[in-house]
Amino acid sequence: MSEPEAAPRQETAVTSDAIESPLLEVDGLRKEFGGVVAVDGATFSVAEGSLTGLIGPNGAGKSTTFNCITGIHEPTGGRVTFDGQDITGLAPYTLANRGLVRTFQIARELSEMTVLENVMLAPGGQVGESVLRSVTPGLRSEVIKAEAAVRDRAWETLEFFEIDHLAHENAGNLSGGQRKLLEMARVLMTDPEMILLDEPLAGVNPTLEEKLLERIHELRREQGLTFLLVEHDMDVIMNNCEHIIVMHQGSVLAEGDAETITSDERVLEAYLGGDV
Amino acid sequence: MSTVDTIRGRLDALPDVGLVVGFIGAIWAVMLVLAIAVGGANWANLAAGFVGSVTVLIGGYAILALALNLQWGYTGLFNIGIAGFMAVGAYTTAILTAPTDPAAGAVPGLGLPLWVGLIGGMVMAAIVGGLAALPALRLKADYLAIVTVAFSEIIRLIVNWDGLAEVSLFGVPVGTGGATGISFKSANDVASTLINGVGQPLVTAAEGVGVSGPNLANLTYGILLLLVVAASYWVLARITDSPFGRVLKAIREDETVTQSLGKDTRLFKIKTFMIGCALMGLAGVLFRGQAGYISPQQFRPTITFYVFAALIIGGSGSNTGSIVGAATFSGLLFYLPARLGENISLGGTRAPGNIVDAVAGFASLDPAPLLAYIISNVSTLRFVLIGVVLIYIIQNQPDGLLGHRNEPATSVSLDRPQSGSGGETDE
Amino acid sequence: MGIAEFARDGRVVVGERPGAAVVAAVGGFLLLDLVAKLAGTTVFFVGTKLLGGSLTVSSLLSMVVDGLLVGLAVGLAGIGLSMTYSILDFANFAHGDTVTVGAFLGWVAAYITAGLGTGAPIAELFMLNSGRQLSTVSTLAPVLLGLVVAGVGSIGIVLLIDRLTYRPMRDTDNISLLIASIGVALALRYLIAFVFGTETSGVASGGLRVTVFSMISVTDNEITLLVVSVLLMLGVHLLLQRTKLGKAMRAMADNEDLARVTGIPTERVIRLTWILGGGLAGIGGYLLVLESGTISFNFGWILLLLIFAAVIVGGIGSIYGAMAGGILIGLVDSLALIWLPSGLTRASAFLVLIVVLLLRPSGIFGGVSTA
């Protein structure tokens, strides 16, 4: 088990160097639960402005890697660097405020709040998040002004994802696909630099899937956002990501563009060994 | 369509202020009718007494329910230590304002003015709430519940302890009074001063129809308490209808998501806990300490559960619902049954002293003794009723009367902006 | 070497688990103080009394016996709370009032049978206020009958309550269930008050006092409490280890979903949970009254927080933990008197509850959650 691992690690180092301006660097990331090792020395980088895919068979440690990067789990070892700064083990809210946000594998909408409220929650540093400003007469006018701006942006974002007709609906009443769109809209409102998408297309119908991917490309093009995408659908990954990282048994097995990956025997073996 | 749905439908059509005023007005009307029915010539005085007492209850429970709604209804913090935080506020106010030269046998205090005491009580309740919250807020809801109720009992046992009944603090004699309690500047005095000053013509008029001075003072106090409710509502509505309130709702729904959207949820939770506890502390002194006297007996955990009942009836998550629930609970479930039991007589059948005699009569086909026994024990049975209502609501109408209403947490209208800004996003 | 390692371990504990270190330090100090008190020495530090004082071995022993007895009954009652907490997944705030109901049913039965033929009016007997004090020695048969009625009666009541209240709510969240149980608690307590009034009645007092080891003095009623609780705890142990249903219960306490998939009949297990838990709660309440001598409509409610403390200290879901937790909390409640004024001993038991929940929510015997 440990033998095939040694080889790819070297190769990883080579490709990592090849990435010119990495926004996110993961170095030797390790996570244990009790005695079980879920992530075992994963090392990879994500270039600024790229759409990078993260794939691997079930149990390869993709979700745990996501959780360790975004502060939901504290890594047992290793280092995560974002924008040149060490962010290992920082709380999720700190990361979000620095521009690194994520969506969840199963969309986690705030179900008893309206779609608009969900989206309006997200922007960071809202003046009205101070109790004193919200209550004190005089100071509140500032809050109201800021709220109007947030509301206008929220409507625009909902229109961008074409769920504006659901604005006043409770988020819990949305369909699975609509929830995924809402999640995207919500993280976008935090003004991120980089978004980690955990299976954003699972349970989404083909039309909606097309729409979502279009939006992702548009955001890259126009706002220079960076995406790291975990997805089961190989076609989606191969057709959309210019850089692909393959994880297997907690560490990185291979990385490169779609052609490199599809021609890599170890990748094929890993997938055949698990469930295809 | 169930009756509850019909009631709800009608309630929805009313604006919030109208709803609250209508509810309290209706309860006053019920009291008035009862007073006229049983009071005879003395009806006016009896009505003033009934309405005054019920108003004080509504005021007290409304402040408490509003505070709990901020913590539980909005943020999902399951605090069942309300009684303890009330005690902290009430005792702090009492110690700050009790006279330095009290009557024989009573505990001296610092003799400060009432307003200083009220602020001090709120601040202390907030601090104690914050300290309790620091370690406890990461617990699961049901563990937080057990921690807070244990904490509130510890507070009660401490103020009950005779070791603190009278101590010397930096040379100044102060204390809790132990099990006997403590007397201090009564908030009621404010009401008395008010009616004896500017309200003198009112007193004369009231005495003209037979309303006694104490009853009028009590009624005035109840109305003052409603003003405090209005002020609390105003503050809380501004807190909840804001980005701050939005974060609180988000924490209730999913704390992990809220954190991953950049909110330091711990800080929000601690702030919320402190604000709620400050309000509970205020209610502790204004409600329980109305007469200028408090004792540990008044801060048993049962009152916590009454506040829960009030909020659940009204609808947790709604500020307006909190007040409506407090009015329904204290007016119809808590106060009315007791007065009915006192004032209904069963044509001369005296209530038997115990249930055996009551049932024995029933066995010989005479239901009168059992009925009389039930009526004379209505003030006990109303708690059974409260329990049953609580179960019914949680099973069938978990949103209470108003909790289903969507009250978006924002300070502006959420309609789509009219400018054409949105038009260009689609190609 | 050994000392160096010990010291290093100590530093690790202080560094990584400051809470545990504080608890250990406080515990160590109290132990040292206890030894000093028993030796009758006082240690002064810079003019103030640091620790010590005086305490006789016999008064310490009698405190231990008191704590043990109360702890056994609390542990007995705690088994049910622990089981419903883990199997039905909610904190049952009506459990204390189940204890009261069982005690009243049992004592009414015992009192009426003991009083039959004495000419006392039935109303007085039913209301438990004829003034007669029962004891195991003088009225063995009625006391035993009461014990059975307390168990059977409270089983009937909890099954009825489950049917009316909790069963329609099986799939609701645990906070709704908790709130429903608050409603049940209110209704039960004031129904008891409606029937029996709010006065405290004296119903039992020891008929015989024996001195053991020439130092500990116990009554026949206390011995009954001891014997019955130990026997019942043994019985529960056998039931859980030897019977199929018992094993299913343990499995469900561990993981309900898993149990459901593996085909364990959940409704049957839930019913058994109520039967065992309710019965033991009622008997626990009955025995507590036998020991303390008095009964009132809210004694179970007042006891509830102590039972919660026992269950949480022992680890929720662990039946043996509840028994051990009960004894521990009983001892804390009683032995706290060595260090604290009598008004604050109960507070110390609650403090233990809070500290355990904050530092080690799985209970101090945690790790082995069931069995």
Topology as H/E string of chain B? HHHHHHEEEHHHHHHEHHHHH
- Please describe the biggest sheet of chain B, giving its number of strands, its sense, and whether it closes into a barrel: 2 strands, antiparallel
Helix fraction of chain A, binned, reads 40-55%
- Identify the most extensive interface between protein chains: A-B, 52 and 42 residues
CATH homologous superfamily identity of the largest domain in chain A: P-loop containing nucleotide triphosphate hydrolases
Structural class of chain A: alpha/beta
Distance between the termini of chain A: 20 Å
Uncertain segments of chain A: 1-17
Biggest beta-sheet profile of chain A:
6 strands, mixed
Shape designation of chain A: globular
* The number of domains of chain A: 2
Mean pLDDT of chain B: 88
CATH class of the largest domain in chain A: Alpha Beta
The percent range for strand residues of chain A is: 15-25%
In CATH, the architecture of the largest domain in chain A is 3-Layer(aba) Sandwich
| Number of helices in the DSSP assignment of chain B | 17
Strand order of the largest sheet of chain A: 6-7-8-3-9-10
Main location (chain B): membrane
Keywords (chain B): Cell membrane, Membrane, Transmembrane, Transmembrane helix
Protein name (chain B): High-affinity branched-chain amino acid transport protein
GO cellular component, one term (chain B): plasma membrane
Overview of the molecule:
The complex is a heterotrimer of chains A (276), B (427) and C (371). By secondary structure, chain A is α/β, with parallel strands linked by helices. Chain A contains eleven helices and ten strands. In chain A, helix 8 links the parallel strand 7 and strand 8. The longest helix of chain A is centred in the middle third of the chain and has 21 residues, at 140-160. Chain B is built from 17 helices and four strands. In chain B, helix 4 (82-97) packs across helix 12, helix 10 (243-253) crosses helix 12 and helix 13 (302-314) crosses helix 14. The longest helix of chain B is centred in the N-terminal third of the chain and has 32 residues, at 43-74. Chain B is globular, with a radius of gyration of 24 Å. In chain C, the strands form three sheets. A two-stranded antiparallel ribbon of chain C has the order 1-2. Chain C is mainly alpha-helical and 371 residues long. Chain C has two domains: 1-55, no CATH class; 56-359, ABC transporter involved in vitamin B12 uptake, BtuC (Orthogonal Bundle), CATH 1.10.3470. Residues 367-371 of chain C have low confidence and may be disordered. The B-C interface holds B 78, 135-136, 139, 141-143, 145-147, 149-151, 153-154, 157-158, 160-163, 305, 308, 312, 354-357, 360, 377, 380-381, 383-384, 386-391, 394-395, 398 and C 90-91, 122-123, 126-127, 165, 168-169, 174-176, 178-180, 182-191, 193-198, 305, 308-309, 312, 341, 343-344, 346-347, 350-351, 353-354, 357-358, 361.
